[in-house]
Amino acid sequence: MTTITADLTSGTLVEIRNGRHVWYADEPLDLNGTDTGPNPYEMLLGSLAACTSITLSFYAQRKGWSLDSVSVRYEYERLHADDCVECDDDALGWLDGVRSEIFIEGTFDDEQRQRLAEVAQRCPVHKTLANGITFVREKITVG
Predict the structure, then answer these.
(1) Measured between alpha carbons, how far is 124 from 19 in angstroms, rounded to an integer?
(2) pTM of the predicted model, to two decimals?
(3) Which of 34, 72, 94, 103 is in the most buried spot, having the most CB atoms within 10 Å?
(4) Cβ atoms within 10 A of the Cβ of 139, count?
(5) Tell me, what DSSP letter sits at residue 130?
(6) Which string of DSSP letters, residue by residue, matches 20-64?
(7) Per residue in 4-45, pLDDT tens?
């Protein structure tokens, strides 16, 4: 099980801990934040980018393939279903969209390239986001 704790320290600055590390999230100046850290969506994309990079690295190591570098770029946007070319025809309303660019450098044949492209979409965070999350009973205490 993974556990994260977070405390709002001042304004929009949040201190986040996992027991071994401390990091910060914030909002940009134009949203009355202090821009001390990435905003929550940037942190989400950072988690996805880290997971994708690590998954590709582990896979290439396991296969003994020569992986020179991995560079990942994710962009989040909120778009309307009517404007989404890639969306299902039955999609309605506003959608959360993530665009990706993944650059993998190394010496690979065509079959290996294809497999790496598939593996990139199979990192655990990608699968979690793609499959959706079930929020089990949330406990909210208001004092």
Answers:
(1) 22
(2) 0.85
(3) 72
(4) 5
(5) H
(6) S-EEEE---GGGT----S--HHHHHHHHHHHHHHHHHHHHHHHHT
(7) 999 999 999 999 999 999 999 999 999 999 999 999 999 999
Tell me which residue has tokens 């940009």: 28
Scan for tokens 């320290």, then name that residue: 9
Please, which residues bridge with residue 5 across strands? 17
Domain definitions of the chain by residue range? 1-37, 39-143
- Candidate CATH numbers 3.30.300.20, 3.40.50.1010, 3.40.720.10, 3.30.70.260; the one for domain 39-143: 3.30.300.20
Q: Give 11's DSSP letter.
A: T
Q: Which letter does DSSP use for residue 123 in this model?
A: S
Q: Do 27 and 35 touch, CB atoms closer than 8 A?
A: yes
For residue 42, the cross-strand partners are: none
